[in-house]
Amino acid sequence: MAGSSVLTSRADDFPRWYQDVLAKAELADNGPVRGTMVIRPYGFAIWERMQAEIDQRIKSLGVSNAYFPLFIPESFLHKEAEHVEGFSPELAVVTHGGGKKLEEPVVVRPTSETVVNWYFAKWIQGHRDLPMLLNQWANVVRWELRPRLFLRTTEFLWQEGHTAHATASEARSFALRVLGDVYRDFMVEVLAIPVLTGRKTALERFAGAETTWTCEAMMGDGKALQMGTSHELGQNFARAFDITFLDETGAQSFVWQTSWGSTTRLVGALVMAHGDDAGLRLPPRLAPVQTVVLVVRAEEGTAEAALTLADELAGAGVRVETDVRVDVSFGRRVVDWELKGVPVRVELGPRDLAEGTAVVVRRLRGEKRTVRLREVAGAVRAALEDDQAELLLEATDFRTSRTTACTSVADAVEAAAEGFATLPVEVLGADGEAEANRAGVSVRCLINPDGGPPAGEEPGEPQVAVLARAY
Amino acid sequence: MAGSSVLTSRADDFPRWYQDVLAKAELADNGPVRGTMVIRPYGFAIWERMQAEIDQRIKSLGVSNAYFPLFIPESFLHKEAEHVEGFSPELAVVTHGGGKKLEEPVVVRPTSETVVNWYFAKWIQGHRDLPMLLNQWANVVRWELRPRLFLRTTEFLWQEGHTAHATASEARSFALRVLGDVYRDFMVEVLAIPVLTGRKTALERFAGAETTWTCEAMMGDGKALQMGTSHELGQNFARAFDITFLDETGAQSFVWQTSWGSTTRLVGALVMAHGDDAGLRLPPRLAPVQTVVLVVRAEEGTAEAALTLADELAGAGVRVETDVRVDVSFGRRVVDWELKGVPVRVELGPRDLAEGTAVVVRRLRGEKRTVRLREVAGAVRAALEDDQAELLLEATDFRTSRTTACTSVADAVEAAAEGFATLPVEVLGADGEAEANRAGVSVRCLINPDGGPPAGEEPGEPQVAVLARAY
């Protein structure tokens, strides 16, 4: 493929390939403070598309967006014992403000349960105030010792949802709807990344949660990536922050809560799940640019024809760009658009134009077709639809081929060198998780054999553990 | 008006009225750390609408969104002398991260010129890389001693644009396009707030800029509010960060730059420019909810009819909500929707339904009209259009009535007790600004008599100073 020479190959060195793609496709750069990141315009356009798709799904559950402060009094974090234990080692602390030492240091939010729940206590009085369903898009900071762009950065962007409900079952049902209708649906239908949805073990649970649900995906090197989590907080924070309501019988009760988040890590997931040796391959539903119309070289009328074609594609609902940079070689521009993973290129040269045709090239298969100009829009739309399905199928097949059903912890650890290992929960046992962890393998989630609970349904007790090496 | 009793009246105590509106309309709350703010769902929905409108205008100028880190090495700020002098007193400083004292403290960004320009130096090599046009939506922190919700908060949300150009005239022209085509257009056409666009005096200029352009509006108490600024940075940051490019002749030159921002302060502006003693009055183009369909009381079929009507309005492109909370008194709900400033209420009672009609009530005039059900959508759309124009007209008339042409600094200071005072620039003179400042009056901007430079046009030397008391 044209782009193969500009990147390290995935087979040679997957982490190096990943860094190369981020740099060459201009997705991100390291920040000046260790562990921080600059998201460049193309990377940010991808994130904006993710935000729009996730936000729409969140709002369809009746959730409203809000904004809570970046700075949290240190004392807030101490109100929930497990929470502070989990987050203390990662905190950034502001000790000086406006030229003076602060009386009480403030922490830069690592997550917002504490501050949100301080307000829930104020805003929630009666059962009419429930459910309270809030979300915020924000930056958070968790000091990171081994940073990796998008996957683990000291500052990252995310959405964090926080809800309060009258009963435990309502809270559970909501946490599962977020898992299924927001996260899994977005990941499968838009990102074309198949995910397992299941429950985290106690060891992997969010600090302060009673149950953590997760979406786990397999990357191109067989390792697992946690894509998003949804927590049942029980009444832990309600007790810590005294969030009570008068129920319909007039009794005072603590609320039941959930919280859930997904982050800029998803951009890294997209790179690692679908990328190949020529660069990114973006699923059409997500791609900020679905199609680029390329003028092959300067020639009377070609640029105008390209702009006309692009207008027509835009009119057909395609997110399209035109590349008329004829002072840059055609080959170099092709490599560039392949790096950026744009699903379809429409190439327009003088000979094509004379014959009333264009060449439609699919990023996924490298397949080229000469198409009459008036049929380009139809061909592009068909290619976009096919590619969306094909990427999902390819990633699913890959996961299947790299998933091994095991019967002992030792087998699972061995199998995890290649991909996912499944193991009956009763075989994993109490000590199996610790044994696997010592070998660098973690329990990603506990699932039902069908792959996880359907959205909003009460899941049965999980029977299978999925083990893998993980990012 | 129905809502008048729940708020302090504007005439009695404007600042208290402002606080009351924010609380009762559930726009915002004070944060737990002094000076910070919680933006509640309704306040945030207003901000999201502002973001969408501003973002679209920014992108139409060819600007791409990106994201730069929250944390900036302290040393970066010292690279531009005026910049560090301006911002040092307001900085929040992180001294500890991940449980350890940091070797170099990092500041929480008060604005991002320094970090953006560090990358511009890396990304810009030749004239083909110019213009470089970036924007980010982010939170920033400036330690605030006299905080006021939305208007002056320690943390606020904003967009900040940063651009680099090959020539001074391109940079100036871009700064003026932002001022006119993004800010003024949005403020006048969407917020229905008339703004003066003009140049800041040296005293009021952004720290590090050569010229600061501003949009200034009059609030309901006659005071001025700075609504957005666009800066010509000249080559100040280019020299500090060594941002050079090879021009077409092969010569190495420093770039010419702009930066520009608008913030959550705009929500405060909206409250103070249009609010009345019953609460907010939102311009229809901005309103997250343009129309609410209210069921007067529980009655067979009324709720269903309201939902049908709401569907029809949504189909006609109206942002609509349905209020079927018949367990809350009708009067209280009306007060509530008036507080929230929703432009049009459609009231549906049993008698209306029997007669196939509904009552359409305009927030602006309190005017009620009984309309046949099939004509409701048309009546609502007409009311929304009228209100948009009427709010702008009202605010413009108010500003005119509170603007006094003065001939001396002393006169101007006196006139500024009521509103804007205009004064020929040559009368203001070198000492006039200091004299006015001592009396609590500032020079908001220098304008041409027509109100400011047209978008993208080279402005002549301003001849008139506008003085006012300001937020």
What can you tell me about this protein's structure?
The structure is a homodimer of 471-residue chains. Chain A has 471 residues and is of the alpha+beta class. The first copy, chain A, has 3 domains: 2-274, Bira Bifunctional Protein, Domain 2 (BirA Bifunctional Protein, domain 2); 291-383, Rossmann fold (3-Layer(aba) Sandwich); 403-468, Translation Initiation Factor IF3 (2-Layer Sandwich). Helices cover 36% and strands 27% of the residues of chain A. The first copy, chain A, is built from 14 helices and 23 strands. Chain A has helices at residues 14-24, 41-60, 74-77, 81-87, 113-123, 168-190, 236-241, 265-274, 302-315, 330-339, 350-355, 376-401, 409-415, 425-438, and strands at 28-30, 37-39, 64-65, 71-73, 92-97, 100-108, 132-141, 155-165, 196-199, 211-218, 224-234, 244-246, 252-254, 256-263, 291-295, 320-323, 344-348, 357-362, 368-372, 403-405, 420-424, 442-447, 464-468. In chain A, the strands form 6 sheets. Chain A has a 7-stranded mixed beta sheet with strand order 3-7-8-14-11-10-9, sandwiched between helices. In chain A, strands 16-15-17-18-19 form a 5-stranded mixed beta sheet, with helices on both faces. In chain A, a hairpin with a 2-residue loop joins strand 5 (92-97) and strand 6 (100-108). The first copy, chain A, is globular. The two termini of chain A are 28 Å apart. In chain A, 52% of the residues are buried. At the A-B interface, strand 2, helix 2, strand 3, strand 4 and strand 5 of A face strand 2, helix 2, strand 3, strand 4 and strand 5 of B. Strand 5 (92-97) of chain A pairs antiparallel with strand 5 of chain B.
